[in-house]
Specification:
The chain is of the alpha+beta class. It has 3 domains: 1-26 and 117-139 and 240-356, no CATH class; 27-112; 143-235, no CATH class. Helices cover 39% and strands 21% of the residues. The chain has helices spanning 27-63, 79-83, 86-93, 107-112, 148-159, 164-179, 182-186, 195-205, 209-223, 254-271, 349-353; strands at residues 5-8, 18-24, 125-129, 141-146, 231-237, 242-249, 274-278, 281-286, 291-297, 300-301, 310-319, 335-343. It has a 5-stranded mixed sheet with strand order 1-3-2-9-10, with helices on one face. Strands 6-12-11 form a 3-stranded antiparallel sheet, covered by helices on one side. The chain has a two-stranded antiparallel sheet with strand order 4-5. Strand 7 (274-278) and strand 8 form a beta hairpin.
Length: 356
């Protein structure tokens, strides 16, 4: 599309100055930059390998014992030549291994979100009115984990300052002490009034697989006791944020109707992946482009309402929501769209501190 900006409302934009702007990420530029980084890393690796080889040869020559003739192997430069380069050898040894590895984006770079977007001459920005109400849900997920008697013993040991190995041994000792009573319990009547004996009996019974579980249940039924699974809530992960934006667009004239059609087409086009052909066969897809979403009021960013680059997950279009009438040129009297997005990365505390 040649249009630089698709906006609704097309006219009277100053009546409501809250806007939400959608920009398409230039994924090709990102891939090209990544490829350039890979090529540079490979080149640096080759150069580093060559330098390492030369440094090794130099070091051998420097350390080579004089055979008494005052000369060295003709296949290698003389000791004097290498002594002149001794400083280079020592400097090479100081180069940290990490400097030869590929560069990885750190958290601070991630927070900057300096991501290129497509030139508006090739792909327009879309500016719509800020919806009167939309919901953003922040959440994290936890999982329940049963430590059991062994895990609880290890946890207790760690909290008391023991090393990991010491805490594990302490937990095992507790379990073995319980199992050590198996002979006593098996060879005598169970005192159901003794809570400790009942718990030890249930522990011993639980060590025999399915039969043990049934036996443990029987012991618990008779004694009225139950082993504590020592359940804990453990942090698991951060789900990707999803959010919806709904807009109802009613054209006031033919020009605005055409802009609305272009907006819907733009989102539908960017929703889908590009098909990849190989030998005349549709072999796969290239990922759809992500969106940069900006919220503004009076042309200023709204604090605390930033988004990470997001994939458009669905576009739902409903036509003529205001009635059955059509415009003379065949355009609908109204168009409603709902856009569903999923952020491409999970948030961290640092994002919230950076006003996301």
């Amino acid at each position: 599309m040649a249009t630089n900006l698709l906006k609704y409302p097309y006219n009277d934009v100053d009546d409501y100055q809250g806007t939400i702007v959608f920009k398409v990420v230039d994924e090709e530029a990102i891939r090209e930059a990544t490829q350039a980084g890979l090529d540079a890393g490979i080149s640096a690796g080759i150069n580093a390998g060559d330098a390492a080889y030369k440094a090794l040869i130099r070091e051998r020559a420097l350390n080579k014992k004089d055979d008494g003739t005052g000369s060295t192997d003709d296949a290698e430069p003389s000791k004097e030549e290498f002594k002149a380069n001794e400083k280079d050898v020592l400097e090479f040894k100081k180069v940290p291994l990490s400097s030869l590895a590929a560069q990885v984006s750190n958290i601070n770079q991630d927070l900057t979100e300096n991501i290129p977007t497509k030139n508006t001459a090739a792909c327009p920005y879309v500016s719509l009115y800020l919806p009167s109400a939309f919901q953003l849900a922040d959440a994290v997920s936890y999982e329940n984990f049963e430590l059991g008697a062994l895990g609880a013993g290890v946890e207790k040991g760690l909290k008391s300052g023991a090393t990991v190995g010491g805490a594990v041994m302490g937990g095992l000792k507790t379990s073995f002490e319980a199992l050590g009573n198996i002979g006593q319990i098996a060879g005598s009547s169970l005192d159901i009034t003794n809570d400790t004996a009942a718990l030890v009996a249930a522990t011993v019974a639980s060590k025999s697989g399915k039969i043990g579980e049934e036996t443990k249940a029987a012991v618990s039924s008779v004694t009225g006791t139950q082993l504590n699974p020592n359940a804990r809530a453990l942090f698991k992960s951060v789900p990707l944020r999803t959010f919806n934006f709904s807009f109802t667009m009613i054209p006031a004239n033919a020009d605005e109707a055409n802009v609305i059609k272009a907006i819907v087409r733009h989102f539908r086009e960017e929703l889908y992946p590009t098909g990849l052909d190989m030998a005349g066969i549709n072999y796969g897809y290239r990922f759809p482009n992500r969106f940069i979403i900006e919220t503004r009021y009076k042309d200023r960013r709204i604090p605390g309402l930033k988004f990470l680059p997001a994939y458009l997950q669905s576009v739902n279009s409903v036509y003529n929501t205001q009635g059955m009438g059509m415009h003379e040129d065949g355009n609908f009297s109204s168009t409603s769209i709902t856009l569903s997005f999923t952020e491409s990365k999970a948030l961290m505390k640092q994002h919230i501190q950076a006003d996301f």
